[in-house]
Specification:
The chain is α/β, with parallel strands linked by helices. The protein folds into 2 domains: 318 residues, Alpha-Beta Barrel (TIM Barrel); 58 residues, no CATH class. Helices cover 46% and strands 9% of the residues. The chain is built from 15 helices and 10 strands. Strands 8-6-4-3-2-1-10-9 form an 8-stranded parallel β-sheet. Strand 3, helix 5 and strand 4 form a beta-alpha-beta unit. Helix 2 runs parallel beside helix 4, helix 5 runs parallel beside helix 6 and helix 10 crosses helix 11. The chain is globular, with a radius of gyration of 23 Å. The two termini are 20 Å apart. It binds 2,5-dideoxy-2,5-imino-D-glucitol and manganese (II) ion (2 copies).
């Protein structure tokens, strides 16, 4: 049996909008047929995915009647049951309708903000009905081109009021649901508020129900901002706030490419999988491995499933490489060489005695400056494991 073929326990998920992306872009129409949610569920099951995610309008077209909505949902549930897929995450489309042209929760027009909240209440109900345990908020339109259009502090306040309102709704309904906030620096707005995962982590600390709110970092979005995605994810994990993750690939300095996972910066993808899988030690991420990505516009429908298979296979290949890397005795020797347990207890939890001991240490600082760290060898070992040149 192929050890790199996806299995349910890998918890790989895709959004309906990812494998359902028909190839249209700002410069041209779709290049692939539009597939129904049911056929996407069948295709995802066939390629080994565990779950499928959705925006409300990926499944229920905007403006559907209540009866149409119920019929569509019932048919989708049948497909999920028939193919054994789950819905771990749901979200609201707060970016397509023209009413959201100046934002949703942060729009200047209170009627737009009311529409956004009401739409999200209904979308949360839909997500919970389908079994979602995580609810993502990506504020694609929460931003500006004309900076003078609103006080940016007011925008943060409106976002907080909306998230607090929706958290209170989830609590009042007794839903088993957590929120995950997804940052992006720009596109489709010139500048998007709460632009990075770091911004989001602080914002969460200002919320009424901060315990039920985490982050959903996306590879492409932090990379667009020129940041280390691994470090943003690490800070979220360390804070217990990595509630979900959007995996894809991105070249820095470009629009949001949402490429097949691992198809660009393979070393960063390796370091990310190493962190998520915990092969370097410490906690392992236990949530869904969600691919928020889509096939090249050049691809036909078969190419979409090549894309999906590639995302999952690359993840598993990198996980195996990371396991071998962190089990490599030479790697361990270089990393562990840095740990000096005798000093460690002095470096935290201040006491006057520790301060005195620190000051009394007889440190040969010149020798410290001359110490060999062997990071060149360490990084070469990583490259060789990545390239399969070392087992
Ligand atoms: C884009 O990166 C956003 C939307 O696709 C969606 O709201 C979210 C969920 O993964 N990612
Ligand atoms: Mn993206
Ligand atoms: Mn995303």
């Amino acid at each position: 049996m192929d050890p790199y073929s996806p299995r349910p326990e890998d918890r790989f998920t895709f959004g309906l909008w990812t494998v359902g992306n028909p190839g249209r872009d700002p410069f041209g129409p779709r290049t692939r047929p539009v597939l129904s949610p049911e056929s996407l569920v069948e295709g995802l099951a066939r390629c080994g995915a565990w779950g499928v995610n959705l925006h409300d309008n990926d499944l229920v077209p905007f403006g559907s009647t209540a009866a149409e909505r119920d019929r569509i949902v019932a048919s989708f549930k049948q497909a999920l049951a028939a193919h054994g897929l789950v819905v771990p995450m749901a979200t609201t489309n707060l970016f397509s309708h023209p009413a959201f042209k100046d934002g949703a929760f942060t729009a200047n027009d209170p009627e737009v903000r009311a529409f956004a909240l009401a739409k999200t209440l209904d979308a949360i109900d839909l997500g919970v009905e389908l079994g979602a345990k995580t609810y993502v908020f990506w504020g694609g339109r929460e931003g500006v081109e004309a900076e003078a259009c609103r006080d940016p502090r007011e925008a943060v306040k409106r976002m907080r009021e909306a998230v607090d309102f929706l958290c209170a709704y989830v609590v009042e309904q007794g839903y088993d649901l957590r929120f995950a906030l997804e940052a992006k620096p720009n596109e489709p707005r010139g500048d998007i508020y709460l632009a990075t995962t770091g911004h989001m982590l602080h914002f969460i600390s200002t919320l009424e129900h901060e315990q039920m709110v985490g982050v959903n970092p996306e590879v492409a979005h932090e990379t667009m901002a020129g940041l280390s995605f691994v470090h943003g994810v690490a800070q979220a994990m360390e804070a217990g706030k990595l509630f979900h993750i959007d995996l894809n690939a991105q070249r820095i300095g470009r629009y949001d490419q949402d490429l097949r996972f691992g198809s660009e910066d393979l070393k960063q993808a390796f370091c990310l999988v190493r962190l998520l899988e915990g092969t370097l030690g410490g906690e392992r991420y236990s949530g869904p491995r969600h691919f928020d990505a889509h096939a090249y516009r050049t691809e036909d429908s078969d190419g979409v499933w090549d894309f999906a298979a590639g995302c999952m296979r690359t993840y598993k290949l990198l996980a195996a490489r990371a396991e071998a890397f962190d089990a490599d005795p030479e790697v361990r020797a270089i990393i562990e060489d840095q740990a000096d347990s005798a000093i460690d207890p002095l470096l935290s939890n201040f006491t006057p005695a520790k301060a005195a001991q620190l000051r009394a240490l007889d440190l040969d600082v010149d020798a410290l400056g001359e110490r060999a760290l062997r990071y060149e060898r360490l990084d070469q070992l990583m490259v060789e494991h990545l390239m399969g040149a070392r087992e």
